[in-house]
Structures are given as structure tokens and as C-alpha cells.
Amino acid sequence: MAQYESSEEQLKLLKQKLENAQIPEGLKERILVRLEQLKNLVASSSFLPELDRISKYLEWITALPWYERTQDNLDLEHAKSILDKNHFGLGEIKDRILEYISVMKLKQEKGEAKEMMRAPALCFVGLVGTGKTTIAISIAEALNRKFVRIPFGGMESPFDLRGQSRVQAEAEPGKIIKALRAAKAKNPVVLLDEVDRVTEAGRASIMGVLVELLDPEQNHAFTDHYVDFPFDLSEVLFVATANNTHHIATAVLDRLEPISMPSYSDREKITIGRDYMLPKILNESGIPEGGISISEDVWPQIVRPLGFDAGTRTLERTIKGIVRKIARLMVEGKNQKFDLSPENIKEYLPR
User: Fold this and answer.
1) How many other C-beta atoms can be found within 10 angstroms of the C-beta atom of residue 149?
2) What is the pLDDT of residues 30-60, one digit of tens each?
3) Same structural domain for residues 276 and 185?
4) Structurally, how many domains does the chain consist of?
């Protein structure tokens, strides 16, 4: 009898949670019917597994941002300042982004907010370390939107994106729904990272899901197999990255606007390392201002310790390695100010 009362109480709490949730009415009615059906299974051995299953499902759907969104900031001067703060050069790419935001602003002013995302999604194409991911983060910051990343490297199945049916054991939603839950808003910037690096076996089916995600005629009613109810993705700003476009399906490319990310010259890397990376890394390391001084003629060795590299990841790792070595020397009391010159730089370069 006590077990029966406990089960009744659990069902009552689930029903109360459902009634207080901000979710679509059609979905709410569907779950209420299932909870009523569960009342008849209280004495059955299948009750507890089914109760656990619906509790987990209810937790997921009540955590999704069905109606929550952030307020866009479409001020061009603000966007330009964010892009300039985070990225050196890239003038043509910044112009394309500002043009994209301008179209969004004009559509919003005409009262066509729901039509804002009908332009093709931006796709940044370039070698590793050329800033594809960080430019996407800057777009989110400029627009005042949440940012979430979905890695495609090594993805094998469309179920990774679309989720699994709840009838399967250990089923869970796909990466799209997980990203929206993490963002806590229905209009985030979602980075589809390295869409060209899915496995060969799953490429065709994954590209099919991508078409649905990127197509405004379809993505207003995206259905995850686990949630099993349409979710409106039309307000999501999808941004993609790729090392090249050879392995991206034509139908997906038709819905993308590829933008080439250029390789950086040594001179550009010196400016990026000196003016952007070093101040940020020093701040993160706790080294006081003036603790490290790097002479101008040292930077070529920092930029190219092992030969040519198209991106800036090696440069960032090198600077971090130098800063860590000096941080340790400071803690050990060897010195509190370090001047790096062509004569001593090899002592500090990571091996």
C-alpha cells in the first residue's frame, strides 16, 4: 500500500511539473495522456522503468528554450568594435559579416524578424588555425547571442544530430537539442564545426540532416527522434567551418555561403602574437605587467620556431610555453623581470 501511495505521489509531482512548464500545448497534452495511462500500471513490474523513462523525458523537454530568446544587438559600430578587438586584419571577412548584420537589421526594421535568417548560412573555409572558430564566437558576441559548438569531426551517424527513439535503452537527444538546452535560448549562434570531416560511411545521411537544419523551409519544424515533437530552429544562426569543401554535399553547399579564411604572413603573425595573444596570455597567467619584455627582433623566432605554419595555433602554443617557463622561474624566485633577446630566447622557447 505504501509503495502504491509513493507511486501516486511521484505521478502527481510529475503532473504538477508538467502543468507549470512553458512548453507547447500539444506536447503537454500528449504527456498528460501518458501520465494518466501510467496510473493503471502502478502495480505492474513495468511501472518503475516507464516512470523513470518519462521522468527523464520530462526533464529534457522542460529544460528546452521553447520560447526563450536573447535580444539581438544589430548595431554596426558595436559589431565592428568586437571584430576589431578579437581579430587582426581580415578586412574582407569583417565586411561580409557587417553586411550580413546589416541585412538582419533592415529586415527587423521592416518587421520581418522571422525572415531574418533566410540568407545562406556563413561557412568559413580555411586551414587549421586560421581563426574559423574564433570568428564565429565573435559573431555571437557582436550580436549578443549565446554561442554553442557542435563538432562534426569523426561523426558517424545522423542519430548523433537527430537523437534516438525513446523506445531504445539509454536513448538520448541529439547534439542539436543538446546545444539548444546548453544555450538556454532558441536563437543562439550554433557553430557546425568541421562539417567536411564526418566519416565516409555516415556522410550521405549526415548531409541529409544538415540540409534540413540549414533550409528555412524545413528547419522551423525540426524533429529530434527523442523529443518526438517539432522544434522551431528558424531563429538559430548557423555558422559552419570546413578545411575544404570537397567533402560537403552539393545540396548543403547550396545553403551555405563559403568564405575563404586566408593564411597569415609572418608579419601578420608578429602583430597578432605581440598585440593580441601575449597580453591575453599574460593576463591569464597572473604575471604582473612589465614582467616580460620581448624585443622586436625576437618575434621572428617565436613566430616560426619549426618552419612555416598557415595558422596561429603553433604561435599561441609557443607564447604559452614561454610564459609558463617564466612563471615557474618567478615562483622559484629566480627573477621578477625577464627581458627576452636574440641571445637568450632559446632558453625560453618550448622544446
Assistant:
1) 17
2) 998 888 888 777 767 777 888 888 899 999 9
3) no
4) 3
Q: Which is nearest to 226 in space by CA: 179, 168, 181, 150? A: 168
Burial classification of residue 182, based on how many CB atoms lie within 10 Å of its CB (0-12 exposed, 13-18 middle, 19 or more buried): middle
Residue 273 to residue 51: CA distance in whole angstroms: 56
**Interatomic CA distance for residues 287 and 327, integer angstroms:** 7
What is the span of the domain harbouring residue 136?
76-260
* Domain shared by 255 and 274, yes or no: no
CA geometry: angle 204, 209, 215, nearest 5 deg: 120
Which amino acid would we find at residue 306? Answer: L
pTM of the model: 0.84
Residues 69 and 235: beta-carbon distance below 8 Å: yes
| Euclidean distance between CA atoms 252 and 264, whole angstroms | 28
**Per-residue confidence (pLDDT) for residue 2, from 0 to 100:** 43
Q: Could you tell me if 106 and 117 are in contact, meaning their C-beta atoms sit under 8 angstroms apart? A: no
Residue 280 sits in a domain whose CATH number is 1.10.8.60
Closest CA to 217 of 331, 89, 115: 115
Distant-in-sequence, close-in-space partners of 163: CB < 8 Å, separation ≥ 6: 171, 172, 173, 174, 177, 224, 225, 226, 227
Integer angstrom CA distances of residue 13 from 24, 192, 305, 329, 350:
19, 38, 62, 59, 58
Q: In whole angstroms, what is the distance from residue 127 CA to residue 246 CA?
A: 14
